[in-house]
């Protein structure tokens, strides 16, 4: 008995049932429900019984069972709803322009919000399509050298196999290494810079789909290659590539499979995979023991997503056990979750491009701001419109309308308008999607959404939420008035919602000022970085890869350069191992310190030829350039930059003649060049050492500015004449440098566009509000004019209402923006000072827009004939 | 007679009410249908149909005893009315007639 008492059907559902069920039949149905519940609770467990009970109740919620609501009050309510609808439409149509503003503003806001949300979602969707995404981690290195801690994204070949052997949590590993190969077939040749060697486990760990070939054997044999569809098409057209051979650089590879292209939301993409054994068969020792050959990216599949911490904990002892502690050692081998790599702070030698978490936050903030502005507009205008219908409300109340009915009427109306806005937003979003895709330079495929219905329901939920929220204020306020108060509007409080509206407008102004000032300041920072003195002339300078081809490098270099120099428009030609903006090699070197002793260190090297400094316009601070006449320079001369000089504690005079032992040479420093940005502008200039070589990786060509295109064409022609099998794969240096800031520039562009739109939406709202303010004060203005007020003073009267709002908004917006921009600028080594003038400019801009909007209406009010105004009733 | 067409589920319910003569209340009907043709019937579906059949005058109902297991709620017992049983019989005869009218050859061996 006691136990029986405990077994109770779910209260909530029982109450729900009692509420909706027709009382005439409720008793026996409830009995049935209870009986079945008891029975199931007896035979199965209580939870299933309760669930079943709830489902039964929900299934009972159908016509025939539900009581006739409202039947007690014996009138038919459908004409009333008709009347609600009619008055709603009438009130919308009475001021059509106003309604269009209302609906359009919200629609544009929603559309922008949707687009940005799509983009942000896309950016966070990276690598999540892998089935094992939560179990895959990347091993990266914190490498401690003599003078710094290097955060590298890479790892060494023995790490994967050794981790598999020693840690039970590790199930599989895949190692990748980027190879830059020249693919050739039937006279077609392309650089395949996104070639990777990979372990044969790659298809087990990642969810890349093989279309042809066997995933277990495809990457087993040396010189096997799996092509992506796009690459297969490039070389084989419609032929079946499997089983055929493809020449890459100097080797022939057997095509063992074709896979789908790597999805665009992957943190690194490749055009083909080459079997890892192609490398390891010739480098067995390095594969087993080279713990500092960190040119690889290692991914590890764990047995479960929960064992990440366990692996992290064991890493220290793993390092101690396996890696010798020499001059260089691993402080740690952190693991990065696969799905976090795309947004994580960049480490050196990253594979693939990376997103920017900060920029995503900024964009999300903008999106929310725009949605807020649009919603506030909507609330404001809805409130304003509702206040025009006070008499209607009073009339309804006098005729017996209950408060609930009025609330329902206004909420319903608001919901209808928001739904129309929502549909319009979908249309606007759909139409502007192609434009938006170009703006953010991302393909934004719909396939990133796991389930379209989730998106749809979130969208619908958002629209309904806004509709209810926006409708709630006017609905609750207005339905609360006493009819007498309205008919005789002498009492206070009737217009109290004016203040509420002003707060909303104030926040809109604040957001607008923040957006404008923020955009200006971001622009300042980017301009500073773009126009910063790089220490070399980056304009009209292009470079091409030599691919180490024997007809360019070594003995042929001078001849090759001379040929190019003869092309009209070419100013000078230089060779080097890498060009500024690219990675450099960190090489062990011993350097003579001021006390005369040789001190070991690791330093970046760039190998150059005799024309490098002159071609790049890099200036000397001390000493001299490499000289052709001086044959000794080839093997004994080093040039350093100013940072290196300071780093070693020398001045200009001391530096020259200091001994350097490195890269197999024993020589002296012959010159010091002024600092130039040889890496990225996100990084500080580091010490660098330069030595002569004729085995160059890049050919840089300075051309006459002016007719660049035809000069490039001529160079291309010459190049093809000399080495027809090697593509002339060139890039302009300034373009490449600008690309380093692509994410930031894009942010600036995007932010600019949306700031403009935000202000537009804000002004729409202001326009609507002003028209109400003016209308409400028609008589007041008329009387003022009759009593001798000038047009100017009337306008001041109206504008003044808004000016102080802007002033308050300015005071609040400034410190917030200041702080946010300060945070964002931490990304850069060179930070622009925040210019206070920008805030003033933003305020003036917002004020100007607001004033233009307002004065457009207030001028009309101020100049109109007062008799007209006074006659209106 | 066309006016008195029974839906398939309506027919099942009426059959069950007939079978359970005198004992036909909600849960019993559900059990009966489930036992005989192993078809899951929800209370919601059953109750709607019961009310509809009662409105049409095919069934009539009266309250029975209240039991503890039903939380003190009374049962409502349904019985076939004269009209109801006539309609049910006609329906069955129509079906049977049609079934008999199928030529032998139509049945695959």
Walk me through what this model shows.
The complex is a heterodimer of chains A (873) and B (109). Chain A is of the alpha+beta class and 873 residues long. In chain A, a hairpin with a 2-residue loop joins strand 8 and strand 9. In chain A, helix 18 packs antiparallel against helix 26. Chain A is globular, with a radius of gyration of 36 Å. Chain B has four helices and two strands. Chain B has a two-stranded antiparallel sheet with strand order 1-2. In chain B, strand 1 and strand 2 form a beta hairpin. In chain B, helix 1 packs across helix 3 and helix 1 packs across helix 4. The N and C termini of chain B lie far apart (36 Å). At the A-B interface, helix 3 and helix 4 of A face helix 2, helix 3 and strand 2 of B.
Low-confidence stretches of chain A: 1-5, 490-494
Helix content of chain B: 40-55%
Order of helices and strands of chain B: HHHEEH
Profile the largest sheet of chain A.
Answer: 6 strands, mixed, barrel
- The overall average pLDDT of chain A, rounded, is 84
Strand residue percentage of chain A: 15-25%
What is the subunit arrangement here? Answer: heterodimer
Distance between the termini of chain A: 76 Å
- What is the count of β-strands of chain B? 2
Q: What is the C-alpha radius of gyration of chain B, as a whole number of Å?
A: 16 Å
General form of chain B: elongated
Number of strands of chain A: 24
Total helices of chain A: the number is 30
Beta fraction of the residues of chain B?
5-15%
Based on secondary structure, the structural category of chain B is: alpha+beta
Compute the number of helices of chain B. 4
Radius of gyration of chain A: 36 Å
**Helix/strand-derived class of chain A?**
alpha+beta
Largest sheet of chain B: 2 strands, antiparallel
